[in-house]
Specification:
The complex is a heterodimer of chains A (about 190) and B (about 375). With about 190 residues, chain A is α+β, with helices and mostly antiparallel strands. Helices cover about 30% and strands about 35% of the residues of chain A. Chain A has a domain of about 130 residues: protein yfey like fold. Chain A is built from four helices and ten strands, in the order H-H-E-E-H-E-E-E-E-H-E-E-E-E. The longest helix of chain B is centred in the C-terminal third of the chain and has 28 residues. The chains are: A alpha+beta (about 190), B alpha/beta (about 375).
Chain lengths: ~190, ~375
């Protein structure tokens, strides 16, 4: 009987440990919820990305912005913004923030005590991607700049690079929307 | 015989220890993220409601059942939870019908935008609170992310065992029982943060709601029809996340095709309901505060009362007794929040601490 009890306990513990990678225990403030567990796990997986910016970068006023990188130095370098908006994050604990500048809108997501770049929307044709694609350009322009390694769906073309993607939405062969996205679970 | 008894006692003891550990390690959601308690609070409720609301934060923040009671004698409960997905709404409704048969069900359609599970953390906020049943199993199966396991929802200890190093006094305090936080599923907030700049909705490649969302909405329609329940679809008057006209048209068409009512309260929020977005929201337009929720509930109550002939129970002694306590709790909480606002200048408790009070540069 004793053996059975030990086996039950072992099975219980081993199943639990095997079911999911254990979150790190060094979370400050010990807030007791799974949201933080997940944040810690994502922080672990993103650390490497954030140390060395990678994926698609967008340049604005001399500042190169990468997805999943710390937003604070970017916002500081860009100077005064036109509009600011914040909303409780649906994916993380804290606030999603939106900063609007002439021609672009930058969105961030919270993780631990920092905000990270989640999306950049190009709002008009005063700005273009570093590869030279802008609102009003054609699908051929896009292919010339980014190649044919895209995913097409309902008139949108998506290119993926590392933990980022750039999406072009087209209408009648013309690009009508350009958005950079961070690839992070839970972000829309 | 003695040996058998000892063995049985040992197994019982082991199970008791495991049960205790599970209760201890599960997140309590008392001082933070109170919406994590909403689903399970329902089980402690007297289940005699004429109206059940289901959906996401746009129901549990925007509708006050106490106002519906005080103004119209309507008995209602909100089975809401954070980012409640359509399939979760369906299974919560299915489960609710096991306990009671409302005359009207109101579903908030914002969740139609999600065609697939989004994140484990939000699944947990809805599903951990459900009692173990075939409805919960169904909800979990429909909701699980790729890296999740059904067994961890049946035995949450398997998910939360690593919380042992984070255990706080709150975990011990509420290990065998929690205090009530909501008012029939409504989470009260009286603080004010006016609507400022609202970002425009990003252009989408495809505005069509997904097949999965429609599948469960259609199941909800069938479930209500089979149980002779009026189903109302609504878009709550929250100004963000952006509700696209293309989405609205799909809901108008769906309602027409299924002979349902669909009301977009966002369109009439200011003109007809009287919501003032400079003082009726606590977070810049995502959710209504108490004054906004009371205005909206009063307007909604008139529709429910007049168009759906819901009875006024205020003169029914049995109901009156149940709701007297609820009304007292409601005003006591309102008074306490007013005290906090006066004392600190902001809400310190009631789940408000997770939000930023201000953030440097103001919108121009």
């Amino acid at each position: 009987m004793r053996k059975i009890l030990i086996l039950i306990i072992l099975a219980f513990l081993l199943t639990g440990c095997g079911a999911k990678e254990e979150p790190k225990d060094n979370i400050e403030n010990n807030n007791d919820n799974v949201i933080q567990d997940n944040q810690q796990e994502q922080q672990d997986t993103q650390d490497s990305v954030q140390k060395e910016p990678s994926g698609y970068g967008f340049e604005y006023n001399g500042v190169v912005i990468y997805m999943n990188t710390d937003a604070a130095p970017v916002i500081e370098a860009l100077g005064e913004y036109q509009h600011y908006f914040e909303a409780e994050s649906c994916a993380f604990k804290g606030l999603d923030k939106t900063y609007t500048y002439p021609g672009i809108e930058i969105n961030t997501y919270p993780l631990e005590d920092k905000d990270y770049i989640s999306t950049i929307d190009l709002m008009d044709d005063t700005v273009s991607t570093p590869e030279g694609v802008y609102l009003g350009a054609t699908v051929d322009d896009m292919i010339a700049a980014y190649g044919v390694d895209y995913i097409e769906s309902s008139g949108s073309y998506t290119y993926i690079k590392d933990d980022s993607k750039i999406q072009f939405i087209t209408s009648a062969d013309e690009i009508v929307a350009i958005t950079y996205f961070a690839i992070v679970e839970g972000l829309e | 015989m003695k040996k058998i008894l000892i063995n049985i006692a040992a197994v019982m003891f082991l199970l008791a220890v495991i049960f205790f550990l599970q209760e201890l390690l599960m997140p309590k959601y008392m001082s933070e993220i109170p919406e994590g308690n909403l689903v399970e609070e329902y089980y402690r409720e007297e289940k005699k409601h004429d109206v059940i609301f289901i959906g996401d934060c746009e129901v549990f923040s925007n509708i006050s059942p106490v106002t519906l009671w005080e103004k119209y004698g309507i008995t209602s409960y909100i089975r809401g939870s954070a980012q409640q997905l359509v399939w979760q709404s369906y299974y919560l409704l299915e489960e609710t019908l096991k306990y009671e048969k409302p005359k009207v069900v109101v579903f908030n359609v914002l969740a139609m935008k999600y065609n697939e599970p989004q994140k484990e953390a939000y699944n947990r906020l809805t599903l951990d609170g459900m009692k173990l049943s075939k409805h919960k199993i169904g909800a979990v199966k429909a909701s699980m992310m790729e890296n999740e396991d059904l067994i961890t929802y049946i035995f949450p200890l398997l998910r939360y065992h690593s919380r042992w190093s984070e255990i706080s006094a709150e975990d011990f305090k509420y290990v065998f029982g929690k205090k009530k936080l909501s008012h029939n599923g409504y989470l009260m907030r009286i603080d004010v943060k006016p609507v400022g700049y609202i970002p425009k909705g990003r252009m989408l490649a495809d505005y069509s709601f997904g097949d999965n969302s429609y599948y469960y909405l259609e199941k909800m329609v069938r479930l209500c029809k089979e149980n002779d329940i009026e189903l109302i679809l609504m878009k709550s008057p929250s100004v963000y996340p952006y509700w696209y006209p293309e989405w609205d048209r799909q809901m108008v068409d769906f309602a027409k095709d299924n002979d349902l009512a669909y009301i977009n309260f966002l369109e009439i929020a200011e003109d007809k309901i009287g919501i003032e977005y400079d003082k009726d929201t606590f977070d810049g337009g995502l959710h209504l505060n108490l004054s906004g929720a009371e205005k909206f509930s009063e307007y909604l109550g008139e529709i429910l009362s007049n168009d759906y002939n819901l009875p006024d129970h205020r003169n029914d002694e049995e109901y009156e007794k149940i709701w007297r306590d609820k009304v007292d709790f409601y005003y006591a909480m309102k008074e306490d929040q007013e005290r906090e606002l006066k004392e600190y200048g902001y809400l310190k408790s009631y789940g408000a601490v997770a939000q930023t009070i201000g953030d440097g540069q103001e919108d121009e």
